[in-house]
Amino acid sequence: MKIVIVGCGRTGAFLAGILNESDHEVTIIDLERAAFAHLPADFKGTTLLGNGTDMEILRTAGIDKADAVFALTQGDNRNLMAAQIAKQVFGVKHVISKVNDPIRAHTYRQHGITTISRTTIIGTLLEALLMGDPEVGKVLLERSKAREARMADAV
Amino acid sequence: MYFVVAGGGEVGFHLAKALLESGHEVMVIENDRRRAVFIEEQLGSVVLNAPADEGRFQMEAGCQRADAVIAVTG
């Protein structure tokens, strides 16, 4: 699949790394050149310096042919803007936006943008761990821990 | 009608003023405390001193029942 990621912080770079492993065609955009240092050394995708809410930059990234777009910068507003452009202007099939504000995550989800809020996900997970309800995050935690171990080994 | 104006800068302030003068109900969301105080002095209790890009405050300002939400932050 062709995948465009907006934002090369920890989350964007991590996702780019694991998609890269499964041979997807990944293009990752960030405003700061230094952000690309988050990518793993064996990243084979394309890095693009620019603003991920700029239509020309998104076109350069090949958004019109993208199967999926992930908006993963540190700002909810930027993520939602990039996601709306991807979905409404370019008609990208899979659009997922990171939205830390839980209420706006809910609001935009009702308007057809898939949103993921780390606030509620981590909070829900932490409460489940405290309450001894391991089923809540079992698969997610196992997979995450395995990836963390592989990343640590690769350093 | 009920309008929520996100941002009480020059545009937001004068827009809110004009809407109030036309008899509409208005709530301005302004993050800067001093600016919010100024608007309140000029226009009355029509200001919510909060960031306009937080869902919680958008709801507190009554975005759900607003006829229009006008985003005019800097």
Q: pLDDT below 50 for ≥5 consecutive residues: which ranges of chain A?
A: none
Q: How does the helix and strand content of chain A classify structurally?
A: alpha/beta
Strand order of the largest sheet of chain A: 3-2-1-4-5-6
Tell me the name of the CATH homologous superfamily of the largest domain in chain A: NAD(P)-binding Rossmann-like Domain
In brief, what are we looking at here?
With 155 residues, chain A is an alpha/beta fold. Chain A has helices at 10-21, 55-60, 76-89, 102-110, 118-130, 138-154; strands at 2-6, 25-30, 46-49, 68-71, 94-98, 114-116.
Provide tags for this entry.
A: 155 residues, alpha/beta, Rossmann fold, 2 domains, B: 74 residues, four-stranded parallel beta sheet, 3 helices, globular
Plain-language structure description:
- The complex is a heterodimer of chains A (155) and B (74).
- By secondary structure, chain A is α/β, with parallel strands linked by helices.
- Helices cover 46% and strands 17% of the residues of chain A.
- Chain A has six helices and six strands.
- A six-stranded parallel β-sheet of chain A has the order 3-2-1-4-5-6, with helices on both faces.
- With 74 residues, chain B is of the alpha/beta class.
- Chain B has a domain at 22-62.
- In chain B, strand 2, helix 2 (33-43) and strand 3 form a beta-alpha-beta unit.
- Chain B is globular.
- Chain A binds chain B through residues 76-77, 101-104, 106-107, and chain B through 53-56, 58-59.
